[in-house]
Amino acid sequence: MPLGSGHQTTTTAANFIPEVWSKEVKMAVEQSLVFANLVKRFDMDVAQFGDTIHIPDLSNLVANNKTAQTSVTLQAPTEGVTNISINQHKETSFIVEDIVSAQSQYDLQSMYTQKSGYAIAEAIDDSVAGLYAGLSQTTGSGASALADADILGGIELLDEANAPMNDRSFVIRPAAKADILALDKFALVNESGSSMGLRNGEIGDIYGVKVFMTTNTPTVTTVAHNVLFQKEAFALAMQVNPRVQSQYKQEYLGNLVTVDTLYGVLEYRDTFGVDVQSLD
Predict the structure, then answer these.
(1) How far apart are CA 231 and CA 121, in angstroms?
(2) Alpha carbon 243 to chain centroid distance?
(3) Ranges of H-type helices in 89-195
(4) If DSSP codes are grouped into helix, strand and coil, which group holds residue 19?
(5) How would residue 195 be classed by pLDDT, with cut points 50, 70 and 90?
(6) Is the predicted pLDDT of residue 134 greater than 90, yes or no?
(7) 3-class DSSP state of 191
(8) Disulfide check for 273: which of 114, 156, 168, 233 has CB 3.0–4.6 Å away?
(9) How confident is the model at residue 215 (pLDDT cuts 50, 70, 90)?
(10) CA angle 212, 215, 216 (to 5 degrees)
């Protein structure tokens, strides 16, 4: 016979069924940050003081014909100077009040400190990546996929500028990675048995140039601005490396944590960089 309707259900027993909070948290996804580690650094020049780095230019001299019984040809180039302004001061701050620390099962101060460090690192990487906009050399098209000819054209521009063969990098968007994987000349980094590159954004090499993939590669609407460059194309001077400072604020009954940094960036050698455009 039917048992009737007097059953215990999740509704009638709701006060006996606990909600469970996981010991883990769902961390926001982070990009691979590669630009800052691939450019020329001037950190030591401003480690102690200063707001501008002056870098004197030095011209090449020419070889002149020497005629018998005549004096040599003197050369006295008027030299310029390249300046890096230390004008980027970034900070990320938060307060965790005592009541939150006492009642939460999570170490929020530690977790948000980690995220603050990432925010600062991302800001530095963004500053360097944004220098692509000043490059005068471009290849490819924002209306089509990345092609072998676009890469070869960029490499040729670097060669014509006498950019050193070492310390060349190609930083690309995910869509460009899909294009480049189809090229026979591309070699995955793990084909050589190395896993280090996979941890820092490096995915392989093409024509002897290391290739890095990151969503932090600049993009404007549907145009990906993949950047092919030798390290001296861009300069970064870190005066204050990212630092963590913590202070108890009695007026808020909580811990204030700040992560900050001070630096400057510059397009250092225009002809050592190429904006390789492709459809994103």
Answers:
(1) 19
(2) 18
(3) 98-103, 108-129, 148-160, 174-180
(4) coil
(5) very low
(6) yes
(7) helix
(8) 233
(9) very high
(10) 85
Average pLDDT over residues 169-197: 79
Domain boundaries, the chain: 35-47+84-134+143-279
CA distance linking residue 261 with residue 135, whole number of Å: 26
Read off φ and ψ for residue 226, nearest 5 degrees.
Answer: -70, 140
The mean pLDDT value of the chain amounts to: 91
How many angstroms separate the CA atoms of 272 and 160, rounded?
10
Tens-digit pLDDT profile for residues 29-78 = 778 899 999 999 999 999 999 999 999 999 999 999 999 999 999 999 99
Give the CA-trace dihedral at 216, 220, 224, 227, to 10 degrees: -60
The total of other beta-carbon atoms located within 10 Å of residue 45's CB is 15
pTM: 0.88
| pLDDT tens digits along 12-40 | 678 877 887 777 777 877 788 999 999 99
Rounded distance between C-alpha atoms, residue 267 and residue 280, angstroms? 24
Backbone angles phi, psi at 253, to 5 degrees: 50, 55
CA-CA-CA-CA torsion sign (131, 134, 135, 141): positive
DSSP per position, 74-97 = -------EEEEE--EEEEEEEEEE
Sheet holding 88-97, edge to edge: 40-41, 234-249, 254-267, 88-97
151 phi, psi to nearest 5 deg: -70, -45
Give the three-class secondary structure for 182: coil
Q: How far apart are CA 68 and CA 278, in angstroms?
A: 58
